[in-house]
Amino acid sequence: MKTICAWCEHEGRRVTVAAGDQPDDLTISYGICDQHTARLVSQLHRYFPPRKPAPNVPDTLTA
Predict the structure, then answer these.
(1) What is the pLDDT of residues 13-45, one digit of tens each?
(2) 59 vs 6, 53, 54, CA distance in Å?
(3) Which residue has the higher pLDDT, 55 or 26?
(4) In a domain, 62, yes or no
(5) Where in the sequence is the domain holding 13, given as residue range(s)?
(6) Which residues contact residue 16 at a Cβ distance below 8 angstroms, ignoring those fewer than 6 apart?
(7) Do residues 3 and 32 lie in contact, with contact meaning Cβ atoms separated by under 8 Å?
(8) 48, pLDDT greater than 90
(9) pTM for this structure?
(10) 56 in a structural domain
(11) Domains identified in the chain, total number
(12) What are phi and psi of 28, to 5 degrees?
């Protein structure tokens, strides 16, 4: 099985994210590559900024 980045394919590229250990398996699955994951996370941070810890609460309780 081969895993292809669906976002790259939408852009006209075919980027393999992962390949299985059986080369004769022609199954295709879709995922997201590291580049598009980083882009998605940065876009999400615009709408959902990281929360700041509440005052007087130890860091171990906010992680």
Answers:
(1) 878 888 877 778 888 889 999 999 999 988 888
(2) 37, 7, 9
(3) 26
(4) no
(5) 2-49
(6) 2, 3, 4, 5
(7) no
(8) no
(9) 0.61
(10) no
(11) 1
(12) -115, 135
